[in-house]
Amino acid sequence: MKSTPQDKTNLDPNLVEELTVSLSKEVSKRRNFAIISHPDAGKTTLTEKLLLYGGAIQQAGAVKARGEQRKVTSDWMELEKQRGISITSTVLQFAYKDKTINLLDTPGHQDFSEDTYRTLAAADNAVMLEDAAKGLEPQTRKLFEVCRMRQIPIFTFINKMDRPGQEPLELLDEIESELGLLTFAVNWPIGSGELFRGVVERATKEVVLFSRAERGKQSNEIRLKINDPELKNLVEEELLTKALEEIEILDEAGCDLNQELILSGELTPVFFGSAMTNFGVRPFLDNFLDLSQGPVARNSFDGPIVPTRESFSGFVFKLQANMDPKHRDRVAFVRVCSGRFEKDMTVQHARTGKQIRLSRPQKIFGQDRAVVDDAYPGDVIGLNNPGMFSIGDTLFIGPRVEFEGIPCFSPEIFSWLRNPNPSAFKNFRKGVNELREEGAVQILYDKDQSKRDPILAAVGQLQLEVVQHRLASEYGVETRLEPMGYQVARWVKGGWPALDEVGRIFNCKTVQDAWLRPVLLFKNEWNLNQLKEDHPEMELNSVAPVV
Ligand code: G4P
């Protein structure tokens, strides 16, 4: 009989030892990351190039031919086709050198950044991708804040160096001053745009000359020592001098490449390159593997759970319905946190206490799927979800584990959701509840219980449209949205008693979330600041407390 971690107690101690060693080995092979960027910075392009270097073990229907990507990113939903946007997120796994790398991909459209927030909760590292001409952009700043909360290492790739960009020193300065993150440039660009000639690698003191790799091909790197006389025939002297002078400034005034600061999320290694021409991607990947962290211990309510804990544990970070409309299925994405996951395993569901046999775990999402036989910490598996899993749920074997939940982030648009047809009320309520559980949208309610229509609270307008569309197509309910004109939500620390103590407050609306906790809605930041000034004793959170 195949042994599983449940029955280790009955196993030969030598076999237990062997299983433990093999688990440690698998854990040390794993690397996992998500890319944070603003749309158009080149996330899809960089992902494509990264996959070129790794034998793509699993590819989750995400990266498609460029032209096609724009039109139809995934066809799980009609709305994606109509709007030509990517709503779904996926997981890609590839092997490179001796590592297995999991890239937790996120939706391309910023209105779905809630999804990205949750995916970041499952990532051990983040790659911050910037367009050299644009520098830091709003979506990147927002997602960076989530990384900061989790203190995960951030690796910066400054993209599109083959196009005219901002001064590299200014780009670093922006990261330092605006994000409060120390920087260490691992390589330094020689020129930019038409005059981009390559980079100087600071560790090796070598110049890597810029060349455009053919589409779909790995790049051929030409490297020369910085004092190689041949260099002056290949690179204009003034460009090289400028780059070397700037490196001197960095050597004197900048900080060192300190691994500890990288791992605590205080220092970001910075790489300059051009994803489209496949320049600088491989050195980036090599350095990333050296400097990034493997699967980390996860906080549970009973302390941290290390990945080498013998038995399996994991948590649901994302739910997705109808990825395959033909089957009307729902998939729960589970991040493996400890132990070895095996097909057909019976696990415990921490929230409900139920035992669940996981007979068809999947490793490929989107159009192509395969049943997975095993998975290790840092990997992501997809489980069929007939409504039993919610975001943040823990699954485990052995001694009880319950991971700390995933916070909800502050919505920015609010709208009443009206159901004009009373006979459809049951379906309406079912649909709203299921979409909330799935995390498609946050739901708030008026404090006055008699007003039963829900308030949809979302990060982007499209999120609301998706909910309306799905209520119509999946639950047969036509609804109407009535915008509310609020822009900011804050949870009150201490709940209703804390709010009662403050007494009457002005210029905000008090509503409650699905857990009946008070939420204050403000028309703008100015009104929020006013409240903070009037009541400095109140503690307000932009992130919902974890339940
Ligand atoms: P995203 O997923 O972050 O939204 O960005 P995506 O990779 O789709 O890239 C956005 C645009 O930027 C694409 O151009 C892409 O080719 C271009 N791009 C990405 N990396 C680089 C780079 O290193 N240099 C240059 N010059 N361009 C880059 P597009 O015209 O919108 O699409 P396409 O016609 O190339 O398909």
From TrEMBL:
Return any one Pfam family short name. GTP_EFTU
A cellular component annotation (GO) from this entry: cytosol
What keyword terms does UniProt attach to this protein?
Cytoplasm, GTP-binding, Nucleotide-binding, Protein biosynthesis
Which residues are noted in the entry as GTP-binding?
Answer: 37-44, 105-109, 159-162
Q: Which stretches are transmembrane? A: none
- Keyword Oxidoreductase included in the entry's annotation: no
Ligase as a keyword of this entry, yes or no, is: no
Q: Tell me which residues make up the Tr-type G domain.
A: 28-296
> What is the annotated localization of this protein?
Cytoplasm
Q: What does this protein do?
A: Increases the formation of ribosomal termination complexes and stimulates activities of RF-1 and RF-2. It binds guanine nucleotides and has strong preference for UGA stop codons. It may interact directly with the ribosome. The stimulation of RF-1 and RF-2 is significantly reduced by GTP and GDP, but not by GMP.
Q: Which family does it belong to?
A: Belongs to the TRAFAC class translation factor GTPase superfamily. Classic translation factor GTPase family. PrfC subfamily.
Task: Please state what the protein is called.
Answer: Peptide chain release factor 3
- Give the originating organism: Prochlorococcus marinus (strain NATL2A)
